[in-house]
Amino acid sequence: MKKPLPTTADSAHPWIERFIPAWFLPYSRIARLDRPIGWWLLLLPCWWGSALAGASERILPNPAHLVLFILGAIVMRAAGCTFNDIIDRDIDANVERTKLRPLPSRQITVTQALIFMVILSLLGLLILVQFNWFTIVLALISLLTVAIYPFMKRVTYWPQFFLGLSFNWGAMVGWSAVKGGLDIAPLALYVGCIFWTLGYDTIYGHQDRSDDELIGVKSTSRRFAQTTKPWLWGFYGAFFSCLAFALYSANVHWAAYPILLLALFHSARLIVQVDFNDPLSCLAFFRANRETGLIVFFALIAASLGSYA
């Protein structure tokens, strides 16, 4: 019987041990394959941008684009996590939730992680070149935001803002894949998504607040501490305001708005219920944002379908 590798507190899933070869387990964990919520949150802005562009043209999103975005989100989220773990390996070693990740626990070496990241990046490039040239260039520019994000927790209490810059670039990419350019609607959507990330990742960061205080890592979770809830209302309020403006700017069918209200009520319920002093409650809040995102996507699909009525 093979000896199980150590797992982090937030990443162990039985199917990983059963179906992934032992030699690949550390790579699957550094890629967060056992935690799909990350690639969902990277994917959804791409889908929103694509669906918003489609709704503005009174057509449904291109299914091929949606599939490419899924593959790209999985691969590039894995590459981003690997890069982040390389940069943060010394910090992760001092945080209870992350100290058993593959690099701080020495399941793989930095060189192996770098090779893995390069392979993932090449796969991402192969997916990216399926789109138009404007979209290819736009997506490549996003690498600048990806590169600076891991360092921000060392210099500012707002690293979640920089995560938002990189994690939601797909809102513009999804639109440009359809339109071949940008407009006010995808820019408003992108800004709204940044506020969305500020909300859900602030709560995610509350899981590590005590460890972060000890080692000096900065975050909005530490900055807001016990005053977090008013900030959450502000972030989610700004998110939905920008989202509504994006829909209005794109002149989408009114059928989107009632469903958008469902996403608003869902988010409000999460804010009311979350206990940011309880790590399990924080994790549940974070994961529930996938449902928020899917409701928004269905609202945009409804806008396209409403155009045929």
List the helices and strands and how they pair.
Blueprint: H1 14-19, H2 25-30, H3 37-56, H4 63-87, H5 89-92, H6 110-128, H7 133-141, H8 143-152, H9 159-167, H10 170-179, H11 184-205, H12 209-215, H13 220-224, H14 228-249, H15 256-273, H16 279-306
Distance between the ends: 60 Å
The count of domains is 1
What's the rounded overall pLDDT mean?
A: 92
List the total number of helices: 16
Order of helices and strands: HHHHHHHHHHHHHHHH
Radius of gyration, Cα only, in angstroms? 19 Å
- Major beta sheet, specifics? none
Short précis:
By secondary structure, this protein is an all-alpha fold.
How does this model look, in words?
The protein is 71% helix and 0% strand. It is mainly α. It has a single domain (25-306), classed as Tetracycline Repressor, domain 2. The longest helix has 28 residues, at 279-306. The protein starts with 13 loop residues before the first helix and ends with a helix.
